[in-house]
Amino acid sequence: MRVWKVVLLVDLALALGVGGGYLWWAREVRALRQELATARQAAEARQGTDRSWTVRGIVRVALPSQQALFITHETIPELMPGMTMGFEVADPKLLDGLAPGDPIRFTLRREGERLRVVAIERQRG
Amino acid sequence: METFGVVIRWVHYLAASSLVGVFAFVVLVARPAAAVAGTDGVRLLAPLDRRLVTLARWLLALTLASGLVALARQATVATGRGFAESLTPATLGAVLLTTQYGIVWLVRHGLLLLLGAFLLLDRDSHDGADWLAVRLEGLLLGGLTLAVFAAAGHAASAQWLPTTAMVIDGVHLLATGLWFGSLLPLAALLRWSATLPTPAALPVTAEAARRFSALGVASVAALVLTGLYNTWEQVGSVATLFGTEYGRWLCLKLTLLVPLLGIAALNLLVLRPRLARAARTGAAGAGLANRLRRHVIAEAALGAAILAVVAILGVTTPGRHAQPEWPFAFRFSWQATKFLAGVQTRVAIGSQLALLGLIAALLAAIVRRRGWRWVVVAGAGGVGLGLAVALPPLAVDAYPTTYVRPAVPYAAESIADGLALYRAHCAVCHGVSGYGDGPAAAGLSPRPANLTGLHTLHHTAGDLFWWLVHGIPRSAMPGFADRLSVEQRWDVINFLRALAAAEQARELGSQVVPELGFAAPDFTFTTGVGEARSLKDYRGERAVLLVLFTLPESAPRLVQLSEVYPSLRFLGAEIVGIPLRRPREVYRALGSAPVFFPIAVDGAEEAATALGLFRRDTSPEGGRPDPPLPRHLELLVDRQGYLRARWLPGGEAGWRDPAAVVAEVERLTKEASRAAPPAEHVH
């Protein structure tokens, strides 16, 4: 075979190898990403309905008559960043003796769409 | 070891860049030039062509050998041990397969081996297609191995657009190879063409010179453009160009480049036209060709020296990442001198003179009417004279630390520490207010500086650092090297920066004014629970209204702001409350007042101290040199991190109606101009 044909074939093989490899790799990455997204969705769906968190917070305003408690709280993983907001309380008795500024640990339970504080534990301030 | 690493790099650069040049030269210069003399010329070219291919084989062998040694050296660098311990299959495998250097090495040397195989195939091919295929392949593979090198150099770790930096560096390397690598082959060709039969010799030489010029001009243009980008990318400033080791080596490289470009210009503008004329008229040109050959060899020597500097640069930390140490006792600053008498006039006259001289010289050099050389000389003189008029008034004192980057960021904690240190060490002379009116100031000559003036902002942070360490000669200012640690000196400087900014910020009112803003000191806080946040985190995301307050009197205002909080959030803004007193008690003190925006608890004291500096305004109360800390102060920080508006209750109506704050935030959101966010450190 003539040398120029060898050169041409090898170059062609190189270009095809690199280009094809790149395209194959891109397809592979896309597939992997998709798989990851599906898995993540599935995981979210699994824990989507019923779940509970126990996090730290500071009592801001307690409203026993409306079964509500406003808390400045830390990040609630996979639910919301730290902020000040009101939550429904499962039992107004939980609010007994709570005053603004009290540091607490509270348990938040999600049942379906409903989000409620089900337990409050006072911390030493 | 270091010297050894540099030498091996140098050899590798020399061989790898020459390799691509040889093939480029054969395909683009030698063969077409020989063709000028017809089929005879091409036939006579064969011995030279063989020699060049042999040279390429040797260069390839040298590239591979030096590459192997460089790999071994890299392994010793990775393990930090000697050759014997490092050259194990495990270490070499790890370096080759898990590091960027190793992967690039594998790709490059794989391509080189492939090229080696083709060069072995090239026995005695005189056939057109085979001949061309092997040499083009050499150009292609040699060029690829050279360009891919960029992926293992400094460009690959560029902070800004690393891909662009790599591509540009790759072009730079390729252009180096095309130009530098074809110099010695050109010298060989010039010797060969002198042996050609007389009628053919000169036309072939002239054609080779013409073709090489085209290759050279294109390569040099690419080298200059990509080199400028690389310099900006790796060095970034005049301070680092002159003040760091990397920058100084780069200066040496540029200095070596000047004679190289001079010779190239001489060849291009003088020798090549004469050769062409001699070839046309049939005059004797052997002397010209010889002179060109000597020039080309000198160029190659200079190029090799430049590559040696490049090898050193490759193992030196880029200037951008090193602390610059300014080597001169002066620097030029328009900012710091423009207010001085006569400076503006002299700079205006000098710059116009220099510009006129430059234009005249350029025009004369392009048009080339009779006597143009004199005009060029006069123009150059005008440029020199203009610079001599304009530059001296711009010079201000500079010190080795002038461009040093502060070790401590411009943040509340540092400013608060700086304030305490200032009160302890500086206030006795410079005054609590910073006006240079301390109790000890009266007896001093010269008077202690007013640290709140605009001039404070015109000295670099590094200037202040130098004075804090060494004092100021012929004044009462002592050095504090034995009393303040390095960190404490930066704390004082950060405080002084905040103080001077606060003084300039007196004019800040309750309405946002375009182009008026001051870098807000950063601060870090928690709301008493959960993770820490910084003001900086809101950059590019939200404008922030900082509310410095005192309970109980601020409580109604906080409730009021809480009512407009949803509107502000909707506009993309955040409110952060900062208690001026007893932050730990803030929630208890607020009681059941409905306030829903975040309030700083941890970090509130430092934030209050630093931001409280910005209480100086133009009102009768706040206009005093050092007004008392107010009970309530609101500061509006824009999305870029600049302090843009301020309200102190008591004076003007301002933001008393919270709708006015909402209106200002809305104005910020509509602002078109986007200043770059302030730097993390003062400068």
Short description:
Chain A has 125 residues and is α+β, with helices and mostly antiparallel strands.
Give an overview of the whole structure.
- The complex is a heterodimer of chains A (125) and B (683).
- Chain A contains 1 helix and 5 strands.
- With 125 residues, chain A is α+β, with helices and mostly antiparallel strands.
- The longest helix of chain A is centred in the first third of the chain and has 46 residues, at 3-48.
- The radius of gyration of chain A is 28 Å and the shape is rod-shaped.
- The model of chain A has no long low-confidence stretch (mean pLDDT 89).
- By secondary structure, chain B is mainly alpha-helical.
- Helix content of chain B is 61%, strand content 5%.
- In chain B, strands 3-9-8-6-7 form a 5-stranded mixed sheet, with helices on both faces. In chain B, strands 1-2 form a two-stranded antiparallel sheet.
- The mean pLDDT of chain B is 88.
- Chain A binds chain B through residues 2-4, 6-8, 10-11, 56-61, 70, 72-75, 82-85, 99-101, 103, and chain B through 114, 118, 121-122, 125, 127, 129-130, 132-134, 136-137, 140, 527-531, 585-592, 594-599.
Strands, helices and their partners?
The complex is a heterodimer of chains A (125) and B (683).
Chain A: H1 3-48, E1 51-63, E2 68-73, E3 83-89, E4 103-111, E5 114-122
Parallel strand pairs in A: 3-5
Antiparallel strand pairs in A: 1-2, 1-4, 2-3, 4-5
Chain B: H1 2-35, H2 38-79, H3 83-86, H4 89-98, H5 100-121, H6 128-148, H7 162-180, H8 183-194, H9 198-234, H10 238-243, H11 245-281, H12 286-314, E1 330-332, H13 334-337, H14 343-367, H15 372-390, E2 395-397, H16 412-425, H17 427-430, H18 454-458, H19 461-470, H20 486-504, E3 518-519, E4 524-525, E5 533-534, E6 543-549, H21 555-570, E7 573-579, H22 586-590, H23 604-612, E8 633-637, E9 642-647, H24 658-670
Parallel strand pairs in B: 6-7
Antiparallel strand pairs in B: 1-2, 3-9, 4-5, 6-8, 8-9
Helix pairs in contact in B: 1-2, 1-6, 1-7, 1-8, 1-9, 1-12, 2-4, 2-5, 4-5, 5-6, 6-7, 7-9, 8-9, 8-12, 9-11, 11-12, 14-15, 16-20, 16-23, 19-20, 21-24
